[in-house]
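User: Reviewer 2 asked us to show a designed sequence for the structure in our supplementary figure. I'm pasting the structure tokens here. Could you produce the per-position amino acids so we can include them in the response letter?
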């Protein structure tokens, strides 16, 4: 294959629609109105005149979920596109910050969108991944220097995997995504003409390794996940990339917790916090404190877990900022609640766990279908342990509805299996009997 010619990336397109909504207000006055609107709906955003300027210049193509909720509260009935933003699907997975990858991905054209829709209709998420991942079709045939086009292909692979995982879970995506990672490492071996391209390629390949590792983790392939996270960590260390290092340690901690290695979970989370300490993102540090709390919960150390949970809540309360990594778009109030639920469940405080899981289900953005199933399964398990079988069965039904559709996650299925086992003593109750019949039928059906 001949190298594709590199062409200059188009600059940001000013957001005229958003500018018109500001009207005669100054950027400072408008940012104050945004903060007031956020307080009205219980959100915390650090909006200032600079943020307003970045939106209006087109530098911010799509806001994070907190800002989206605030803007829709301020301008009811308007979609993101009507507010002048790009669809979220066009930017999911973009790296934050100007130092690496500041130039933005061009939005997908109508032809590509049609391919994606047809792939979903005819073959589900795995086919859609193959239809839209530029690196998923076979190996790269001849050695050559890597340019901007190849790096953008790696970044697009990361974005597509994250988007599909949000909606469908890991099981149907894992094998296809692994081929993309092998091709990304082949690109690394070929080298790049410019250091800036090489830096982006290292960062993109590392993020891709983490994404594939997560698919392995969520689909129950823990040994594979551990290997992918180790590859990402090695890439981060070689490239001197603290953001990638923090992300790799974050996922390593989560895997160790799920793999019943709680002390390793604590150590990895603390290493992640050390790497992230210079990045300026309170939300990232909040998530990493939750990872540490999960390890302490696994060790049965309630005081240490409570201290980490308190730190996570305090850091989360500082609100979002421009330094927050783009991969953290899943980390909103619902995830904060869901991870706290898992900690309390590990400590045996099922009533408190159920309260947090219930809030997680209620608060979750509909885009994150997989997480709604996850929190519902957590709630079912906690309620079953509390001896509240009817509500547990109701939560289990919600999770089964999602698992019976397009969500495929062995991890969530395992949680539901545990809830079903806890509910079997209550099988004479109608709601429980219905849930168990449906659960057992889904378990027996072919994947």
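Assistant: Here is a per-position design you can include in the supplement:
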């Amino acid at each position: 294959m001949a190298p594709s010619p590199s062409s200059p990336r188009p600059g940001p397109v000013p957001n005229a629609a958003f500018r018109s909504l500001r009207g005669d207000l100054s950027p400072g006055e408008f940012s104050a109105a945004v903060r007031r609107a956020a307080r009205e709906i219980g959100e915390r955003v650090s909006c200032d005149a600079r943020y307003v300027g970045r939106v209006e210049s087109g530098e911010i193509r799509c806001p994070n979920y907190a800002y989206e909720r605030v803007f829709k509260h301020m301008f009811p009935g308007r979609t993101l596109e009507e507010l002048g933003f790009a669809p979220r699907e066009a930017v999911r997975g973009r790296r934050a910050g100007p130092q690496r990858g500041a130039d933005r991905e061009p939005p997908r054209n109508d032809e590509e969108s049609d391919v994606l829709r047809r792939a979903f209709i005819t073959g589900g998420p795995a086919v859609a991944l193959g239809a839209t991942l530029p690196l998923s079709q076979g190996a790269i045939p001849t050695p050559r220097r890597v340019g901007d086009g190849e790096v953008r292909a790696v970044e697009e692979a990361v974005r597509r995997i994250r988007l599909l995982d949000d909606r469908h879970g890991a099981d149907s995506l894992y094998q296809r995504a692994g081929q993309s990672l092998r091709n990304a490492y082949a690109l690394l071996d070929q080298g790049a003409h410019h250091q800036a391209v090489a830096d982006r390629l290292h960062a993109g390949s590392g993020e891709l390794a983490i994404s594939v590792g997560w698919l392995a983790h969520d689909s129950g392939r823990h040994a594979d996940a551990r290997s992918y996270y180790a590859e990402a960590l090695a890439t981060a260390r070689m490239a001197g990339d603290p953001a990638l290092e923090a992300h790799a340690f974050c996922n390593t901690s989560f895997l160790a917790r799920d793999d019943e290695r709680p002390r390793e979970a604590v150590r990895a989370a603390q290493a992640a916090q050390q790497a992230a300490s210079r990045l300026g993102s309170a939300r990232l540090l909040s998530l990493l404190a939750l990872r540490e709390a999960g390890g302490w919960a696994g060790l049965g150390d309630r005081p240490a877990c409570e201290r980490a949970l308190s730190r996570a809540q305090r850091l989360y309360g500082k609100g979002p900022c421009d330094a927050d990594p783009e991969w953290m778009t899943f980390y909103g109030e619902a995830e904060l609640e869901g991870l706290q639920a898992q900690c309390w469940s590990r400590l045996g405080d099922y009533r408190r766990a159920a309260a947090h899981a219930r809030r997680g289900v209620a608060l979750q953005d509909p885009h994150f279908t997989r997480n709604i199933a996850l929190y519902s399964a957590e709630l079912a398990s906690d309620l079953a342990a509390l001896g509240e079988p009817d509500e547990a069965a109701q939560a289990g039904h919600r999770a089964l509805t999602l698992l019976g559709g397009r969500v495929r996650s062995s991890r969530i299925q395992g949680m539901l299996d545990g809830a079903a086992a806890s509910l079997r003593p209550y099988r004479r109750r109608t709601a429980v009997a219905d849930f168990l019949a449906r659960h057992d039928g889904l378990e027996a059906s072919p994947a």
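For the response letter, you might also mention the following. Confidence is low (pLDDT under 50) at residues 1-9, 93-143. The two ends are 37 Å apart (CA to CA).
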